[in-house]
Every structure is written in structure tokens, then in C-alpha cells.
## 1
Amino acid sequence: MPLSEFRKKKLLFVFTTFFDVNDSGAIDKKDLDLAVQSICSSRGWASDTAKLEQTKATLLKIWEGLKQGADSDQDGQISREEWYMMWEDYAKNPDNPPEWQNVYMNFVFDLEDTSGDGSIDESEFCVVCRNHGVTDSEAREAFKKLQVGTEVTREKFLTLWRDYFTSDDANSPGNFIFGKTSF
């Protein structure tokens, strides 16, 4: 079954917001390098910190996995169509994703868990969403729609993550993990 327009809109949001950082219409290694700079800048991490090096290493691992799993024409870029095809494959077996997708999911969780206490509260969620162009009011509304109470644990996040990338139900709680309330 081909991707619904609703799922394409959700996937495009992730593609344009978190991956195609230079707005070229495709994802390439330069985008991941720019993402490292953006993340570190928003966190106030200096260029010589362990956090920066860890972020670089993680995003490089994500890039290598993404390239291997989605760059079907092997041109060093991931087009929107290649992106859609990759997530369509994921939806067929979300319980057994490629390693890089687990790395990415855990990376996102750790970025949102700014306190490092193993859970994401509404305040942490709103701060990260704001860094990606989502208003505080929309982020607060999205957090409520996650239906997790006062915090998102890693276990809850995994369920919401799978839901985001596989569900066609516009009311599904996972649709709100990136702070958007409508697509």
C-alpha cells in the first residue's frame, strides 16, 4: 500500500526540519555537518567539548546508515522519494528497524531530555520544539496530545516514534512527538 498523503506530510516535516538543513531539496553529508553546528550552537556547546564530538559521531553514524538504506541511486544524496521509500519499508516491520534508525530515535530522545534524567517533561519538550520553529503554545498542545501524563520515558517514546512513522490516523498520539499539531 503506497504512503498516504498524511504520512508523506509528516515525513516531509522531519526531512525538511531535521535533515535537509541547507534547504537543497535533498539530504547529503553537508546537511549533517550543518545539523551538528546547529545543535551545538543551540545547546551552547563549545567546539572543543566532548558533547560536540559525540554529536558529530552520532550524526555521522546516522548519515552512513541513512545513505546505505535510502540512497538507492548511490549519488550521495537522499531525495524526498528515496526518503519516503525508506520509511515505507520501515512501516512494514517497525519492530526490526535498521540500527541507524534506533540510533536516530535515541539521539532525538536524548536531545529532548535536556536534564538527562531519563524522561522528557513538557518544559523540555517545548524548548526543543521552539528550536525547530514550533511555537510554545503549539508544543504545549502537542505534549498534551501525546497522552503520556507529565513525562515521556524512553519506552513511551519508542511507542510514539513507531506510531509517528507508521500511522495514518491523524489523531494518533505519536503524530505529535515533534511538536506539530497539524500536517
## 2
Amino acid sequence: MESGNMSYNDSKLGSNGTQPGHQEALSPRIHLLLLFIDLVICVFGLVGNGVVIWFLTFKMKRNSCRVYILNLAVADFTFVVGSLVNLIHFICTAYDVTMSDTDSDNLLRVTRLMYNFGFNTSCFILAAISVERCLAVLFTVEYQNNRPKHLSGIISVLLWILSCLVTGLEYFFCRKVMQVQAPGNERCTPARLFTSALYLLLTLLFITSSLVLLVEIRKTSKQCHPLRLYVVILSTVLIFFLSVVPARLLHHLVYFGVLQSHSFSVYRFYVEVTCNSIHCSSNPYIYFLVGTWRKRGLRGSIKQALERVFKADRETSGSKEEMRGSDTAGTQG
């Protein structure tokens, strides 16, 4: 979902369901149905991330992990707001509730920046959480003794700055690209290649950290339930692979002209909107499900669920050390 103006031009509905010079790949009813589905996903994401932000800001004491999660929720919330406004604008356009071209262009420009900025930040912070948890597993003692107290906040600020730079780069080079039907724009291509390399690096980091956490869960699950935080991280990374990776792959296939049919441009719009909205809307519900899960079903409040999942680092590492100590004592006995 890197280019809202392009997506808008491709998905815009006319009075007869066609665009000038193109036959619509989908009927107006299908368009509205898909837009409504995406709208519902964004509403759930808005509510879920809003609740997480509220509890982590006003109801719970912060630790290193909760600082990351708070920033992740703010990034997802930013993306969802931009997507929600964009979708409402599309639906209003379909029902001929329009505004001036200048206001429409300004609105699309702002929402595009919002969801690109929020989406990039969300992926960067998720990568930071995964890598730090991986380091905590591989170097437990060194991690606990040498980790700076405010490292989470510092890294989060740096990632927001990085996202701002990446989003600005995309906007500066690609702001004049208004038609997907003209792929491979020379000015925009370097920005696309840079962001593609960046997200390829993120994907490799996700794969490596996920393998480490899977091994850790396999080891701890022999004595006790897997650590909830690791289950949450693996779940969010899985959502990333199932949603973001296919959407970005389709985006580049259309952009570089591998898929040239106009129908793919329309499908690309809905694939990107749906997949990216799922990615940024699902995290709060993963926290709740993992935090409230019991053998006898789901139990506990939202606050209790968040507290169980995002325990303090010392508490989490302490439980692991106790488990390993008891295992060693049993072996010696």
C-alpha cells in the first residue's frame, strides 16, 4: 500500500462501473463489498490498537518490552487511521459524494503519508522486538547485565526517524507517479529498489529470529508452557509473512510490468489494502488471545492479558533460570 493516489485512480468507480479507456475487472457491487470488508478490518484495528495504547499509557507500568509495544500500537494506529479515511473517501466517491479535486488530492496525499509512515514504522519496530528477544535468548546473562535502561525508547525513536526518512524518500521520488499502467518509472525505480532491499533485510531478520525463538519454545515447553511473549512475537511474524510479503511481491510484479493487465492493478489495490490492514490490525487481538488463554478457555481482563504477555524482563528471565535450575537439580539428584 505504497501509493494511495495510484490505487485510487485504479479503483475509482464511475457511474456505469467503468473507467475511461478500461473495462472494469470488478463490478461496482464487488468493489463496494471489498471496500466494506477492508473498512471493517480497519475499524477493528482502530479499536484494538486504541485500547492497547490506552492501557500501556495510563493503566500499566512500563518496561522495555511495553515501550516497544506502545510504539508498535501507535504506528499501527497511524496506519489504520490513514487507511480508514482513504476507504471512506473511496466509498463516498462511489456514491457520488465528492469534494473538489484540490481537496481530494490533498486528502489522498495526507492519508498516503500516514499509512506509509505508520506501516514502515510498524515493520521496523516489530523487527527490533524480534531481534532483541533473539539476543536475549542467545546471550541471556550478558543481555540482563549490559542492556542500557532506556534502550527501548532510544531504538524506537531511531526507528521512527528511519521510517520518516524512508517514507520521505518514497514520496519525493514517487509522488508524480499517478498511473500503475505506466510501470517502471525511472525516477521512482531507485526508491522502489531501496525499499525492496530494506524489506528483504527485515524478512531475513524475521526468519533468523523466528527460528531461534522456535528452538527456545521447544526447549521450554518440555517443562512448562511456552513463554507467552515468544508466542506473540512468532504469531505477529507469521502474520507478516502471510500478509505483507505477498502484498509487496504483487506490488512489484505490477510496478515492473511483469503483470500488465489492468485487472491486476485492481486486484493489487485490494490485496495490498486487505493484507496490510490485517497486519496492522491483528496484533492487539493476538495479545489478548495469548494473554487470556487457559486450559479451560479464555479468562481474564484486557489488562491482565497484557500484563501476562509483557512481563518485566527480569521476571521472564528469572522464570527461565528457575526452570533450568530445577532441571539441573533434578538431573544431579
## 3
Amino acid sequence: MCSIGEEDFGDEGGVHAMIPETAKLTLDDSLQQQTCKRCNLEKCVLKLSHKKDPECGKCFMNYVRHKFKAALGSTKIVKRDATVLLVADEAPESVVMLDMIKNCIEQNIHQRLHVKIVGVLMIDEGFLGDNSDRNGPKSFYERYKYLGMPLFYTNLARNQDSVKIIDENWQQLDDDSKEKSLKQKLSALKSLTSQQEYLHSLRVAALSSAATELTAEFVFTPEISLDLAKLLLTNISLGRGASVALDVGFCDTRHVSFRIIRPMRDLTIEEIHHYLTLNGLSAASSTRFGLNKGPNASIQNLTAQFVDGLQQQFCGTVSTVFKTGERLKGKNAGNAEICKVCRSPLDFENSETLFATEYSRLVSEFANQHISEPEFIEEKAKEAVRGAEKSKKQNLCHSCRNIFMGVDDENLGDFYESLS
């Protein structure tokens, strides 16, 4: 019988909220004088900040792996023998997810994860950085070849092209024209916030293209609770409240041929680091575009800094933020049209909030022009909410319209094409 109690999976946010405590991310030698209270056999090596007692490495590994498998098993969304594509980079969360899945499929018949892994996908965006070193696929291969799974590559600038297999004979296939085209598109966006949001949509498009080509029913991504807490607050700040439940939930159902699954969402950054240490695994830092430009450069960076600060000083608060996202539900869209970029239901129709926002903006704008007719301002506000007649921006949700603010219809078609 499983020895992990229900208290291990409780909402610790309410219990530990606002308790200043920095998580220990290294093994504690001083704990080795104590015997693990869970198994009463091994010496303790670590103590998680949200648990009362220290524990040994073996019990910690059983606990965190059970937590991972429980997330997959409790929902019963991923059926037996389903085809699964794993999306990863070399960040700690990806390293842990892939190692856990390897462990799960090597268990005995009763405890095994019964899915068919079609491969591990790397989405390369190294060309966007200042570093000219393009050895990402080779490094990816060296890190994950022990898995014995097919390793695939796709470039963020070529999401419509077929995926390539990474092996020991890999040679970099640069395509300067498409990479240059993507850089030009980024320069056309008015802010780093818009650029980072557009790149996020490109990653999803690349993922979708690869999943379709490899006939995967499910795509596993490695976001943990800290990542999703950042995403939750960022999306609300950017006006994506209608789709935030899909963006941070266990399962994203917006795609017709496959579903995105987040099996790591219940794990904390502290558990990730302990897992790496106990298993002797290494990882690399994230190379996402714009992260090195400082916290004030974009909404995403500022939110990330805020949540990281909470994690260091009040780690229970991050759990509260994340678990709040679990309870959010989007409106039932029915047969509503979807946004061409993020595939969320179009949210501007009959929106009193958007109308009030546009009305207030126009009142301030027209005050300088000595225009005060309420009917005129009201009609202009309704037009701003709907979008101009026959404009391609009518196919975008409110948040995606803000991303492409300043991009005309002719150039917007190029953005649509790159995301299709």
C-alpha cells in the first residue's frame, strides 16, 4: 500500500502563507544524525520547506515520483497506450520530467506508465540570442541520449517544416532567410512584451506542427507550479483572463488533433533541485528571448521577478497563486470563433469591460479635440471593441490585438502565415 498520505498533497498555501522561509536547495549534512520518520530505516538528507519532518533520499524519490504519477492517473485523461510527444529543453524542469518518464516506463507491469513515447522534441530558438554558438542540438543529444528515445528538432523560425531527427551525425541546418524574417517580424512589434507573447505563440505553433506530423495524441510539457504562477499573473495582466484556465490547467483542449498535458504542475522548484542533486543530473539555465534584458523590460520579466521574490521569501504564497488558477474557469464558448493567434474564444463580443475601457480612453482623447457628444463617443467605442470593418484584427482576441498594435493588415497576414 502507498505510504504517502493525503496531507502530502494538500493546499499548503493557506497553511504556510506569508511565512518568511527560504527553501534549501542543497542536501543538508546536519540532518544525517536523524532517522527518516517515514521508513524508520535510512538517515535523513533533506527537509522540504512545506513538510514538518526531514526525510531520506529514497522516501523523497518515492514521494516526488508518486506526485508525478498521481497527476497523470487522477485525471484519467491520458488513456492506456496513448501516443505521447515530450517537449523539452535543457532546463531543470525538462531534465526532471524526462528522467521521471523514463523511470515510469521501466517499472514493473502494475506500476508502469502505459503510453507510447513517439519522441522528445527540441524547439530551437538559439538564433534569437546574442550568442552565435549554435551547438544546441548537439548538447541536447548528449544530455538525453541515455533515454533511448527518438530525439527531434524543429526551429522556431521554421515551424511549418518537417521535424528532423537528432543523432550523433547531426549537422546544423541553418536557414538564414527564415531566421532573418522572424527577426524582422519581432522588430515590427512595439515592445518586448509583445515580442515575448508572439514567440510564445510561435512555440505553440511549432509544437502543434510537430505533434501533427508525428501523430501524437498528447504533448507533455514541463511547466512546474512556479512557472504556472508566473504565467497566471502575466496572462491576467495582459487581458487573457478568458483563457487563463486553459493556459495553466492540467490539460489544454484548444487543439483538435492533440491535447497539451502539464504533468509537472504540482512540483515545486525546491523538489526539482533536490531531484537533480539526488540523481546526479545536471541542467542548463533558460535561454528564452528577452529574459536577460532586465525586469522592467517587459510585463513577463517583471512578473517573473515578483513571483521569484515571493518564492524566496514567502514560498507558500506561490502555492496559493498557483492553486487559485486551478479554480478559474473560462466561459463556455460553444461554437464561438477562435483567435487566429492564441486559439482562445474571441472575447470582445458584448464585453462591457472592454467597452468601458475604450469609452474612457476616447473621452480623454476627444476632450483635447473639444468633442463631447456621448452618442459619437459611444459609437466609436463600440467600433474599437469590434475592430474596424473588414480588418484582420477582428479575428484576434483583445490581448492579441494589443500585441499587434501598430501592425497594419497587410503585414498582419505574414504573422498569421507563420502561426498557421
